[in-house]
Design a protein that fits this description.
278 residues; alpha+beta; four-stranded mixed β-sheet; two-stranded antiparallel ribbon; 6 strands; 15% strand
Length: 278
């Protein structure tokens, strides 16, 4: 539940005095959602999506005497918004160089770069303003562009490796790749999905499905996967034809007695022949 929806439900209930059904009709939601919002006294916390954001900030750890000089010890803390995975790094200062170095170490520790880096009004990052009106430090923007360029270069290298791995499967794979390049689609997305199918079903089965897709001129990874699933189901399902025993004498040796309808009369009783009690 979003914070805006929770606040609107509370306002309509407490300020305007509407009933729960009226609130649900006005906001086009169910009454259970209204009941949950009214049961919460505090707004719900919005949890970001995986890989959406990481929050960073400095903390104070007191002072440490190095030789005869007392030094202030700071700790850099980074927390992922979804998994809450933390990264900490101790430092003897909070200068820009220390902040940038800690950010780089954080991204290397997480093995990637999130879409957003959330920070307070740090002097190493913000020159003036706050929030959406904050003016970021030029050096931070340069560092961000550098990290973004490095990330794009890494993704490009991974895409090239994926193309080489797929083309090495065989001539059918290379022909399928060339057909994908002529289509208005993203070939890297289809190649990544097809390589996943190779790891799951094996090279031989995927090439057979690709060969069938080329025959029908359908150049889509989802179609190749549908062929693989259909072939796997065909192998696992039993035959629709009736089973015939290999040894015919097994049926010939079975002797069944002739049916006797009188048994049903004896079991059920001859109620029609009996006279009703007087």
């Amino acid at each position: 539940m979003k914070v805006s929806l929770w606040a609107e439900i509370r306002r309509l209930y407490e300020v305007e005095g509407l009933k729960r059904r009226a609130i649900a009709r006005r906001l086009h939601c169910c009454t259970k959602t209204v009941a949950k919002a009214l049961a919460r006294l505090t707004p719900p916390l919005s949890v970001p999506e995986p890989g959406e954001a990481v929050q960073v900030d400095w903390g104070d750890c007191g002072r440490l005497t190095i030789g005869k000089t007392p030094r202030r010890v700071s700790v850099f803390v980074a927390v992922l918004g979804y998994s809450r995975l933390r990264y900490i790094e101790f430092s003897l200062s909070q200068r820009k160089a220390d902040f940038y170095r800690a950010v780089v170490h954080t991204l290397e520790f997480y093995g990637g770069s999130p879409r957003k880096i959330i920070f307070d009004n740090l002097k190493a990052a913000v020159i003036s303003g706050s929030g959406r009106y904050a003016c970021l430090h030029p050096e931070l923007l340069v560092q961000s562009d550098h990290r973004l360029a490095a990330l794009k270069l890494r993704r490009r290298r991974q895409a090239d490796q994926r193309v080489e791995e797929f083309d090495a499967l065989g001539p059918e794979a290379r022909e399928f790749h060339l057909k994908l390049l002529s289509m208005p689609v993203k070939p890297t997305v289809h190649l990544r999905r097809l390589l996943g199918l190779v790891r799951l079903y094996g090279r031989k089965e995927v090439l057979a499905a690709i060969r069938q897709a080329l025959q029908y001129q359908t150049y889509d990874a989802a179609y190749v996967e549908a062929i693989l699933v259909q072939e796997r189901r065909r192998r696992e399902l039993p035959s629709p034809t009736p089973l015939q025993p290999k040894r015919r004498e097994l049926i010939e040796d079975i002797h069944l007695e002739e049916p006797d309808p009188a048994r049903y009369d004896r079991l059920c009783g001859d109620s029609e022949d009996k006279e009703p009690p007087s």
